[in-house]
Design a protein that fits this description.
This protein is α+β, with helices and mostly antiparallel strands.
């Protein structure tokens, strides 16, 4: 039983039953992820959906138009893939959302009544997932523990099953299985043996043959502060061309690396912003995703001619896109106004929704507008929205700070944003330094001084919002989850005069204790971000820890915490709450039995209701 005051959960949020129904419909409306199909059996598909009220894995046989729920666990399941032949589904099994576990497999058609998923391959120990590559003849998987990262390879046995796994890579630094060639002879690892997990290098190993011993073939690293990401091989046997994302000119661009000959070609694509891509199946073209100023577009890029052709998709954000064997482009698209839809763009130019969950669709919401604000480190891009029938004049405003930190707020649908708007709040998103989509210099500007740097940009946007007449300075709420929760607590302590209330979901609250308890991949991330461990640069961790500034917190604060969170562990949150209690501060806490957020729709509803109710009470009392 917690000794801290628990958050109030109202039975209803709105006096108007129609508004109450609308916000619940947005959060409860079923949603699906982009399907993943078996390479050699493309009618067999896998996707993740919350149709049951919990995010779980589903199998979809397009030949018979049948859908089957694969997983059914109290805290949900989101990590899954399908074997190339379509016969097996692999999903990651952890405990109560703690992200520590192992891969298990079961037949696409389903388990017998008395059966259970099988841990595979044999000889692989539990850990945090570090990648998985499935072939018809070899399986490669990785796991991370406090001792570092281990990568195993296992041959597929005749008649089914797997031979005992063999370790082909092991290192104390962070690493990940990144790509497997179509003929299953070449494996790509992303690694940080140079000590910076935020800017990985690539290593290619040979895994063909009975020994699958992982003989090194090639290595590529662009040096300090420059990332390389493996985007995949073409679906052509013997094709050793690896599509790679690089940052040689300060933004994400593309190159093709022939790993057998160790030669490369940089692709000159004249578009502003950042680029990612995947192969068309025959290896003659790329599907390019272009991200610029919080919106996305899709392009066909012909490799022989260098011709770039924009595909006819609507304005918004693409959260996933790929090309099926027949050339159909399937993608997930949403905007602030329109909920996400899984669509197909066919070769004849027609476009249609292909995967529609049952139930009532989520009601639409308000569009996002752009603001470009001069900050101490350059121009800050903010996105904002006003309630539909808002009165003239300044409004109570929620400054919603995204997690990551290497992520961004985009023009995409958010039931959470829609709830704040329906509750009468304006909403402002800030793509502070540290965000992706604005170049590597912007993303990496927080190195050595995280938290404090981002909040300089938040302050500049807050000043703009007040000066423009959007925001009532006395009714400004700061909120966020994960890194956004961390920034929320930092804001309350370092900018106490700006905020009337704060809501911090699964935050870093005591950075020194968080480092001790968090999963090893995040410790590696923190060492790269801060320039060392707490033992090596203790002053930096203290200067950038919310606990350091807790005595300056004046506004009421709500903290939401997962009991099994490996990313922002519960002990360091309790340290912060204990200090608030000792200081007699006004605060509440919402604890739940899951990890870094909840995959259960009903739980999400309770948390969102508690947040809006808390903000209303805090502003009424201010």
């Amino acid at each position: 039983m917690s000794k801290h005051p628990s958050a109030e959960i109202p039975e209803t949020l709105f006096d108007d039953p129609a508004e109450e129904k609308r916000w619940r419909a947005r959060f409860s409306a079923p949603r699906n992820s982009l399907p993943d199909w078996a390479l050699d059996a493309p009618d067999r598909n896998l996707y993740v959906s919350n149709s049951s009220g919990v995010w779980e894995v589903y199998a979809w046989d397009r030949a018979t138009e049948t859908h089957r729920q694969v997983t059914d666990r109290p805290n949900g399941t989101t990590h899954a893939t399908i074997s190339p032949d379509g016969e097996a589904i692999w999903w990651f099994s952890d405990t109560d959302g703690n992200e520590f576990g192992r891969w298990v497999t079961e037949p696409f058609a389903g388990l017998p009544v008395d059966g259970s998923a099988t841990a595979a391959p044999p000889g692989v120990h539990e850990g945090y997932p570090a990648g998985l590559a499935l072939g018809t003849g070899v399986v490669v998987c990785g796991a991370s523990t406090d001792e570092g990262t281990t990568i195993w390879a296992s041959r597929v046995a005749e008649g089914g099953g797997y031979h005992p796994a063999r370790v082909i890579y092991q290192h104390e630094q962070d690493a990940d299985v990144a790509a497997l060639s179509h003929d299953e002879s070449l494996l790509v690892l992303a690694h940080s043996e140079h000590g910076d997990s935020r800017h990985p290098a690539l290593r290619v190993l040979r895994v063909r043959g009975d020994e699958v011993d992982g003989t090194p073939v090639a290595e590529k690293w662009d040096g300090t502060g420059k990332s390389l990401s493996a985007l995949g091989f073409p679906l052509v046997a013997g094709d050793a061309r690896l599509l790679v994302s690089h940052e040689r000119r300060g933004r994400s661009e593309l190159l093709i690396w022939d790993v057998e000959n160790d030669t490369e070609v940089e692709l000159q694509i004249d578009l502003p912003g950042e680029l990612s891509a995947s192969w068309y199946p025959n290896g003659t073209a790329l599907l390019v995703t272009h991200e610029h100023e919080a919106r996305c577009a899709l392009y066909h890029y012909d490799l022989a001619s260098g011709t770039l052709t924009r595909l006819p998709t609507a304005t918004g954000t693409v959260t996933g896109a790929d090309v099926r064997p027949d050339g159909t482009v399937e993608y997930s698209l949403s905007s602030a106004e329109r909920p996400a839809a899984i669509r197909a763009l066919y070769t004849d130019g027609s476009d249609a929704v292909i995967l529609q969950p049952g139930g009532t669709p989520a009601p639409p919401s308000q569009p996002l507008r752009d603001a470009f604000v001069e900050g101490p480190g350059g121009r800050v891009h903010a996105l904002y929205a006003r309630p539909e029938h808002a009165p003239d004049g300044p409004l109570p405003t929620v400054f919603s700070l995204h997690g990551g930190p290497h992520a961004a707020d985009e023009d995409r649908f958010s039931a959470y944003r829609a709830l704040w708007l329906d509750a009468g709040f304006a909403v402002v998103h800030v793509n502070y330094r540290g965000s992706t989509g604005y170049g590597s210099q912007w993303r990496d500007a927080i190195e050595g001084r995280p938290g404090l740097t981002e909040l300089e940009d938040v302050a500049a946007v807050h000043d703009w919002a007040v000066a423009s007449g959007l925001t009532d300075p006395d009714r400004s709420v700061v909120e966020g989850a994960s890194w956004g929760g961390y920034l929320t607590l930092m804001a309350l302590g370092t900018q106490p005069d700006r905020w009337a209330a704060g809501i911090a979901g699964v935050p870093v609250a005591d950075y020194l204790a968080a480092y001790e308890d968090e999963m090893e991949p995040l410790r590696a991330f923190d060492r790269a971000l801060f320039g060392g461990s707490p033992d090596e640069v203790p002053d930096r961790y203290r200067d950038c820890s919310p606990l350091t500034y807790v005595e300056k917190v004046r506004a009421p604060v709500l903290v939401l915490a997962g009991e099994n969170d490996p990313r922002c562990p519960i002990r360091q949150i309790d340290n912060y709450l204990d200090r608030l209690a000792a200081l007699g501060a006004t605060y509440e806490v919402y604890r739940y039995d899951a990890g870094h957020g909840s995959l259960v729709v009903a739980e999400s509803l309770r948390q969102r209701a508690a947040e809006v109710h808390f903000a209303r009470r805090a502003l009424a009392a201010s």
